[in-house]
Q: What sequence folds into this?
């Protein structure tokens, strides 16, 4: 089992940047593909990005391609999401998740989320 704790959210102006972090407990972090999702008020949760166990493969939602970058440091049991050129529509709670495959949208473990608010 793995526990996930996100951090790094906050209030930022449009065009700004943040780096979200997700720290995982346990010694099995490198066995999991990791993903980031987000959920805005009144909307369904949506996929943002995912990264394979080794970090060699990444996938992104079309709406964030070129602006967001997912990475991981297996030595630190941490996955990151660099979010650049933020837009008001990026405002949401951002969640990290651990699962079996970078190509799957089904994840086994979830964090509590970190809020990102982008002002116009």
A:
């Amino acid at each position: 089992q793995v526990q996930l704790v996100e951090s790094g959210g906050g209030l930022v102006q449009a065009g700004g940047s943040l780096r979200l972090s997700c720290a995982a407990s346990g010694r099995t972090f490198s066995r999991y593909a990791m993903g980031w999702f987000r959920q805005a008020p009144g909307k369904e949760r949506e996929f943002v990005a995912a990264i394979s166990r080794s970090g060699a493969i990444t996938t992104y939602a079309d709406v964030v391609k070129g602006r967001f970058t997912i990475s991981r440091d297996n030595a630190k049991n941490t996955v990151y999401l660099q979010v650049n050129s933020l837009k008001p529509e990026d405002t949401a709670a951002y969640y990290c998740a651990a699962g079996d495959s970078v190509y799957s949208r089904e994840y086994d473990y979830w964090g509590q989320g970190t809020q990102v608010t982008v002002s116009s």
The radius of gyration is 13 Å. The mean pLDDT is 96.
